[in-house]
Amino acid sequence: MPEPLPADVTxxxxxxxxxxxxxxxxxxxxRGLAAATSGNHSVRLSDGSIAITRSGRHKGRLTPSDFMxxxxxxxxxDEGRPSAETGLHLMLYRLxxxxxxxxxxxxxxxxxxxxxxxxAGRWAFEGQEMLKAFPGITTHETRRSLPVVDNSQDxxxxxxxxxxxxxxxxxxxxxxxxxxxxxxxxxxxxEAERIAEAIEWLIAADLAxxxxxxxx
Length: 216
Description:
The chain has helices at residues 11-30, 86-95, 108-116, 155-166, 189-215, and strands at 40-44, 50-53, 67-70, 101-105, 122-126, 143-149, 174-177, 181-186. With 216 residues, the protein is of the alpha+beta class. Strands 3-2-1-4-8-7-6-5 form an eight-stranded mixed beta sheet, with helices on both faces. The mean pLDDT is 90.
């Protein structure tokens, strides 16, 4: 049987967070960003534990039973197996204590771009109005970057490789695993989703610009 919730995690607290993630999963699925059972999402609860999607669940058809809690060390609090990429979520919560939610999805545009640019360690975006969708950015007259890390399939290796780039001043709150997908984080689910939508737009615009320039 699942363990009872800690005293400072109310059922409402957990249900509200899970409901928000279920809605995000549905929207990502409709946009083709969560094919099959890909991706994983999490939120930090008021006691510091993390509610995260269980491994192998379809993100467009999530129910409350598709989530479980782990502690800050990644140890399961509830019964079951959390996402195989739980370690990367925990890395982001440790690096950025204000983070309340982490979203991971498999973007066809981002994966395609990362495979077409196999040596790129980051992509830069400059002069785009959409940059103002990211926290702390008030003008399009700026240059910000998206770190890209190779996919070793070892979460500890990936975390060690990408962590230094995430704390650089010009880095956006999002990173890419090559040939795999994107991670975005924010103070809550709403902000993390806004960041996810913004980076998807920036990548799509970059691809469109490249396509038009090839015709000139």
